[in-house]
Design brief:
about 425 residues; alpha+beta; seven-stranded mixed sheet; 7 strands; about 60% helix
């Protein structure tokens, strides 16, 4: 029996194109898309702090560079918040349209100076753009569920802005790196930052030593410069050899760190080199660590340099920790230092402010003048007998005699403790 032959497959009818539903306000589709996008951006603008943290979490989880706290820029949270605020603000307020591009140019140039890889910078823009778009779509569908088609039309506008900012970031990065000499050493800065942050795993540090071309064991020191004037020109080399020392300049938040391979040179030689490169200026204070024996100890050296900076008494000073060891002890444990100052100088500090200031200033001048009452009087613009009377008063109040070396040592350390802890009342 003959079976019927199957006919051609039945194809379902082609769906008819349906135009988007008319906008209730009578706007053309593009204008409606712009209005819906602006409304979603206004909603997102009110949520920027929380949204920025969510975007940062996504960036850190998807980037091995930004996800590493030793490599990520210290201002990452602040810069991400500002970038998102500029971008979203430009969608809400047309007058602010160029702000995100200007910030992309500025921040990408800064990242190039810091040695952040261009791939990481571009990844941050891709993640930021995707997070912004997802948030805008979610908010639009929540508030205006019947206008999903308008958000689809708005995608072109959002991603064209992302592309513009990304292109500006690339060009700024290339312009900055194009000004740098070959072998500048800027790309090694993230590795130096890892060491300065206290990275001490010997295996990894040895790998970093190979990448940097630095000996694992050698005489190193770290210097820090803090303040608004603590900066060098963009074109200044990140690595240079100065009088037998190899210096690596590494920008930090609020200043510069210098990792020095000293060779046979001293900390004094390093201080001279730094002063020549960054002349003292108002608002800038610096500190230099003692010598450490290898790259593993650079994190500790940075902490010592921080203590040296804290011991500075005037702007433009570059303090060597070796010259401020008592102050370093005080700043390392200001709570104990304050307690010691109260025990030794308590009765003096309890006098009225005028007498207290006279007694403290007289003790300081006498110590600085190597115990000469005549020289102390000249420094204080008073007669030596006045100096003697104040010192006797101080002896009576403290119960310590300036003729006894141990008492003098207590008074000297208590005086430094009082002056340094008073400069750091928050500690």
């Amino acid at each position: 029996m003959n079976q019927p032959q199957p006919g051609p497959p039945v194809r379902p009818p082609r769906p008819r194109y349906l135009p988007p539903p008319p906008d209730p306000f009578g706007e053309p589709p593009r204008e409606a898309a712009g209005r819906v996008l602006r409304h979603a951006a206004e909603l997102l603008q009110d949520r920027i702090p929380r949204f920025a943290e969510s975007a940062l979490t996504q960036l850190r989880s998807s980037s091995s560079y930004y996800g590493n706290p030793l490599l990520a820029p210290p201002d990452l949270r602040e810069s991400a918040h500002t970038a998102l605020e500029c971008f979203i603000g430009g969608m809400v307020t047309p007058e602010r349209l160029s702000e995100s591009g200007e910030y992309a140019w500025h921040m990408s140039g800064k990242r190039a100076e810091e040695g952040v890889p261009l791939q990481a910078v571009l990844h941050a823009y891709r993640v930021g753009g995707a997070e912004i778009w997802d948030a805008l779509v979610t908010l639009a569908l929540q508030e205006l569920p019947d206008h999903g088609h308008s958000m689809a039309l708005a995608a072109t506008d959002v991603w064209s802005r992302v592309d513009r900012d990304t292109a500006l970031a690339v060009e700024a990065y290339r312009q900055v790196t194009g000004q740098l000499p070959a072998g500048d050493g800027r790309k090694q800065r993230p590795l130096l930052k890892a060491l300065l942050s206290g990275h001490t795993d010997v295996t990894r540090v040895s790998a970093i030593a190979v990448a940097l071309g630095l000996p694992l064991r050698a005489r190193y020191a770290v210097a820090l410069l803090h303040g608004p004037g603590a900066e060098r020109p963009v074109t200044a080399p990140a690595r240079e050899v100065h009088d037998g020392m190899e210096l690596h300049w590494c920008p930090q938040e609020g200043g510069i760190a210098v990792v020095a391979l000293l060779g046979e040179r001293s900390v004094d030689d390093l201080a001279s080199a730094i002063t020549a490169a960054v002349p003292p200026s108002p608002g800038v204070r610096g500190g230099i660590s003692t010598v450490v024996a290898g790259l593993v100890e650079l994190g500790h050296a940075r902490e010592l340099a921080e203590l040296a900076v804290s011991s500075c008494t005037t702007d433009g000073e570059l303090a060597r920790l070796a010259d401020h060891m008592p102050g370093a002890f005080i700043l390392a444990r200001p709570d104990l230092a304050e307690e010691f100052a109260a025990q030794v100088l308590g009765p003096v500090l309890d006098t009225d402010p005028v007498e207290r200031n006279h007694l403290v200033a007289t003790l300081a001048a006498w110590l600085d003048c190597d115990g000469s009452t005549e020289e102390a009087g000249k420094r204080l613009y008073c007669h030596r007998n006045t100096v003697l009377n104040r010192l006797r008063r101080l002896e009576r109040l403290t119960g310590r005699l300036l003729s006894k070396p141990r008492d003098v040592a207590d008074l000297s350390f208590a005086l430094d403790s009082y002056r340094l802890t008073c400069r750091h009342p928050d500690r």
